[in-house]
Design brief:
By secondary structure, this protein is of the alpha/beta class. The chain has ten helices and 18 strands. Strand 17 and strand 18 form a beta hairpin. Helix 2 packs across helix 3 and helix 3 crosses helix 9. The longest helix is centred in the first third of the chain and has 23 residues. It is globular, with a radius of gyration of 21 Å. The two termini are about 35 Å apart. The structure holds flavin-adenine dinucleotide. Flavin-adenine dinucleotide binds next to helix 1, strand 12, strand 16 and helix 9.
């Protein structure tokens, strides 16, 4: 059964039921980090703003993720420069840095209640070749996105993690973690305080263009809107066919161990950092904010499955890396759908009043919050909303309509490459 650790003691926001307005300036589809961050900006700028979610507020990925905050673009700096040229490529890469800084500023200067813990991330190298690559990367960081990194030799790995799997690694000191459900609540509060109306359990069923804007058909009637934002990420459904052809929903699975006590958690992750490694089929883990459990996630199944079925597999994956956790039970297991894109970059933009902001490739905690804010500013015609990603082509593929049939063979191949140490 799906049981998410984060919502055990923090409830997701439950907005009071309101009659839907007949018309608004801005209608936002999806009440996760993207939609809520955008809504705050449009409402603050005086635009009447309605946010609708088909489930509870934050019930997509935003309320259930790993809470890890890192530089979150997948393509390397060099790839971005070769794709876009030096000047634009650099500006694109730097946006991911702005995203982390934005969340840091919200958590520290604006004191957002989200359990901000700036402890960094340890990345383990699963082969000597990958360790050499990490060390090279640390030494030759591109200046525009340089961060504080220290290389960890194989002999020192146990200072970071109780695992013999790694041939060394590095620590990214600027990374942090948050409590994802608390972040949802904080962003919800900011949106509502700015004047946005948020309604849960109200699905958007269709969007039709009119001369003045859009007619949005919802489960509770039709609303006219001058501008609409698609903020549905990995939950983009048939009501949004153009966007659905451009995002690849992929299940990400997570468990929380039983309460094993602070001392045992420190034995496994002595610096209480986030942890990841260089394998293609990723794993990620971190201590719970109270430091008494380990939260472990990754891709546990070739095909999509449910949380109950993958729980034993995740426990097995965790104990393969950390043998000292053998016998520890997982009390929680859950799954959510992230959105990959064909160029592994997030995308934001607009087509004549229909705005979109999605495709964070599994790393939206900082980027959804940041680009959500920026797209909201764009919808309010504010110049500070502009980003280096504006107007970049949002690719699809022939014969792709939203069902990622190629996922299982890809994961199968990645696993094989990981086993071969490639
Ligand atoms: C298990 C897991 C672990 C993760 N760990 C991390 C991590 O450690 N660090 C990190 O940076 N990222 C992580 N992520 C990814 C991150 O959570 C997402 O990128 C981010 O939350 C995306 O926010 P969003 O607002 O764009 O989308 P979501 O939060 O997914 O919200 C989309 C919303 O749209 C709604 N919706 C869809 N269609 C409709 C419709 N027709 N009408 C109305 N509403 C609709 C959905 O109900 C949903 O609430 C993880 C994700 C998962 C699942």
């Amino acid at each position: 059964m799906q049981r998410c650790y984060w919502t055990d003691d923090v409830s997701l926001p439950a907005p009071p039921d309101a009659t839907l307005p007949a018309s608004v300036d801005v209608l936002i589809v999806g009440a996760g980090y993207t939609g809520l961050s955008a809504a705050r900006e449009t409402a603050r700028a005086g635009r009447s703003t309605l946010v609708l979610d088909r489930g509870a507020v934050g019930s997509g990925c935003s309320g259930m993720n790993g809470g890890q905050v890192a530089y979150s673009f997948k393509p390397s700096f060099d790839t971005l420069v070769s794709r876009h040229g030096r000047e634009l490529g650099e500006r694109v890469a730097v946006e991911a840095r702005h995203a982390v800084e934005n969340l840091r500023r919200l958590a520290t200067e604006e004191a957002l209640d989200c359990d901000w813990q700036p402890r960094g991330t340890f990345v383990g190298a699963h082969t000597p070749k990958h360790f050499a690559a990490l060390a090279r990367e640390a030494e030759s960081q591109p200046a525009p996105i340089a961060q504080r990194i220290s290389v960890v030799s194989r002999a020192d790995v146990h200072r970071e993690v109780a695992s013999d799997l790694y041939h060394g690694g590095y620590v990214l000191h600027d990374d942090a973690s948050v409590h994802p459900a608390k972040l949802v609540n904080a962003l919800y509060r900011r949106a509502v305080d700015a004047g946005a109306v948020v309604q849960d359990h109200c699905e958007v069923l269709g969007i039709a263009r009119t001369r003045e804007g859009f007619e949005v058909r919802t489960a509770r009637g039709t609303v006219r809107a001058r501008r609409v934002l698609v903020a549905t990420n990995g939950y983009t459904g048939p009501a949004l066919p153009w966007h659905r052809r451009r995002v690849i929903p992929i299940g990400s699975y997570q468990i929380a161990t039983e309460d094993i006590g602070a001392e045992r958690v420190r034995q496994v992750i002595p610096q209480l950092r986030n942890v990841g490694d260089t394998r293609r089929v990723i794993i990620y883990l971190r201590p719970s904010p109270d430091g008494r459990r380990i939260l472990f996630g990754g891709r546990a199944a070739l095909k999509e499955s449910n949380a109950a079925l993958v729980r034993p597999r995740l426990v097995q994956m965790m104990t393969e890396v950390f043998p000292s956790l053998a016998g520890v039970e997982a009390t929680h297991a859950w799954v959510g759908f992230v959105a990959f894109t064909f160029d592994t970059m997030p995308h934001l933009g607009a087509d004549n009043g229909l705005y979109y902001c999605l495709g964070y490739c599994g790393q939206g905690v900082p980027t959804a919050t940041y680009f959500g804010m920026r797209i909201g500013q764009q919808m309010a015609d504010l110049t500070e909303g502009r980003t280096a990603l504006d107007g970049l082509a949002f690719p699809s593929r022939p014969l792709y309509y939203g069902n990622p049939w190629f996922l299982a063979p890809s994961i199968f191949a990645y696993r094989a490459l990981d086993r071969l140490g490639l």
